[in-house]
Amino acid sequence: MHRVLTVSLLFPLTIFSLQGWAENTASKSAQVTVSVYNDADVPPAVLHRAEQRVASIFARANFEVVWLHCIHASAEDAPACNRIDPPEHLALRIIPDAASFMSDVVFGIAFLSPDGTGKYSDVFWKRVEDLHATSNLDLGGILGSIMAHELGHLLLGSNAHAVSGIMRAHWEGEELRRIAMGTLLFTPQQAKLMRRKARLFEAAEPSAGPNPPSS
Questions:
Q1: Are 152 and 123 in contact (CB under 8 A)?
Q2: pLDDT-based confidence at 202, cuts 50/70/90?
Q3: Which of 45, 111, 113, 160 has the greatest count of CB atoms below 10 A from its CB?
Q4: H/E element, 135
Q5: 197, 31 in Cβ contact below 8 A?
Q6: Which residues contact 48 (CB under 8 A, 6 or more apart)?
Q7: What gap in Å lies between CA 113 and CA 44, rounded to an integer?
Q8: Nearest 5°: phi and psi at 55?
Q9: Can you name the residues that pair with 31 across neighbouring β-strands?
Q10: How many CB atoms lie within 10 A of CB 215?
């Protein structure tokens, strides 16, 4: 089952509320480890800004993100890169572009099974560059926001698209404005659900997962 992020370059304003974040900060924090495969050779400075954006988005959901850089991973990190155990440990691959049959407005994909669980997601670098050229938004901010969206699909499961916030299926003028401001976020309800899944994982015995798929 595929979940894809699409962005519309129409620019109507849509307004949503960010109330309830104070409630989130009082809840128990959680942690997610992300194995990153930079197959598109994204410049290190851009990738660093993207990861900072993801960390900031997840921090507002009371999540800590731990990054593993798994292209040319060190001997110390290589074994950890291969232990993909959702929802505690996920894999995200940045690939040069989407398959030719995919729409031009598809920016990423999360691979979900019929029961809504998933480990792997892809982000399409050329689409990020194209949106940067059209909107003049920071490359790192765009990339990080799309990365957070796809990781959100893996953590939230099926039917994760929402009418507002970072999980909105179609990003328009307001969403792009919030990317520029760093305020395109998960809703409080989504944050609670992700933390609940993480706590359930903590109570269960972890199992070793297979290696991430090759590009």
A1: no
A2: low
A3: 160
A4: helix 125-135
A5: no
A6: 140
A7: 32
A8: -60, -40
A9: 64
A10: 12
Angle between helices 125-135 and 139-156 (to 10 degrees): 130
Handedness of CA 203, 2, 105, 126 (dihedral sign): positive
pTM of the complete model beyond 0.85: no
How far is Cα 79 from Cα 49, in angstroms, rounded to an integer? 26
Indicate if the pLDDT at residue 28 is higher than 70. Answer: no
**Can you give the length of the chain in residues?**
215
Cβ partners under 8 Å of residue 52, min gap 6: 140, 144
How much of the chain exceeds pLDDT 90, in percent?
Answer: 62
Name all domains of the chain by residue range, CATH numbers in brackets: 2-7+21-198 (3.40.390.10)
Give the separation between CA 137 and CA 54, rounded to whole angstroms: 16
Question: CB neighbours (10 Å) of residue 124?
Answer: 23
Burial 172-210 (b: 16+ CB within 10 A, else e): bebbbebbeebebbbbbebbbbbbebbeebeeeeeeebe
Amino acid at 141: G
Report the candidate in 1, 3, 13 with the shortest Cα–Cα distance to residue 162.
Answer: 3
Q: Are 105 and 71 in contact (CB under 8 A)?
A: no
- For 179, the enclosing helix (H) or strand (E) is helix 173-181
